[in-house]
Amino acid sequence: MNKIAEIKANGKKSSLSTVLSKMGTLLALALLLLFFGLASNSFFTVGNLMILLKQASINCLIASGMLVCLITGGIDLSVGYNTVLCSCVVGVLVQRFGITNPIALILGGVLASTFVGFVNGTLLTRLELPHPFVSTLGMKNMIWGIALLITSSTPIGLNNKGIDAVLFLGDKTLFGFGFPVSFLLVLIAYCCFHVFLNKSALGRQIYCVGGNPEAARLSGIRSKNVLTFVYTLSGFMCGLAGIVLCGRIGTASPTEGATFDTEAIAACIIGGASFSGGKGTIWGTLIGALLMATIRNGLNSMQAPKALQYVVIGAVIVAAVTLDVVRNKMEAKARRLAAK
Questions:
Q1: Are 25 and 272 in contact (CB under 8 A)?
Q2: 310-331: average pLDDT
Q3: pTM of the entire predicted model
Q4: In sequence order, what are the beta bridge partners of 252?
């Protein structure tokens, strides 16, 4: 009887820990919103909350691509400057070539970023590198250099250039109360990711490649093709984020994006993804990205110094990595107890 009671108790603890794991990030977001709402009278205004969603949009788009890389047990450190590259390509096409056709500009920028993602995937799979850390870090510096070269290290203004249809995604709002078009794009993209990751065969293969590479190989999954696709998809999402960035700041600046990669990683890890692979959900990533945006927006509403904001954001990133380590240890311990 004691043994049965012990099993039931362990089951309840496991169930409780699962619920807390899934709801913990949402609870943290709610507490942050409450804290900043009490600390600043301007935080809970409709206008500020819409600004928060607009601020979160770029990180949300980049983080969705980062998520699929993390699920496979990899990482893409080039996402920040890949996003910047897209905006710089748009700027150069407008300034030097006089192109104002919105379809041509969007295709040019997005294809450039998608190609970078494809190269990242190809380097990883065809050269059989042990981990994408080095290759994507190298690519990060290469594309930053390319962005500086093609813009002559000078920001290119995009306003009043006859490309309002391109800037629309990052600049315009809807529904009469300022709901950003960019966040509507995020919701559409995240719904597509949810269906893709949970309902498609390729989505399940992505989880399998990250969760158990040996089982994926034995089941006939072409892991190299899956990984190439994943990094290409990450590049594509950087391209969408780059188009939003054009409208968001109204310039194509090669010096933007220094923190885009770390904030995307933090959003994914806070949302339940892991560096060890095989885990993560798109909606958890959305909550993680909103949490990061809430911290930045809340500190701005409290008029905190910029330096302090960097300290806090850095502390959150360290805490996210620590959370991943602790979470993995707890899960490993639970598996050992279940095996007894």
A1: yes
A2: 82
A3: 0.90
A4: 156
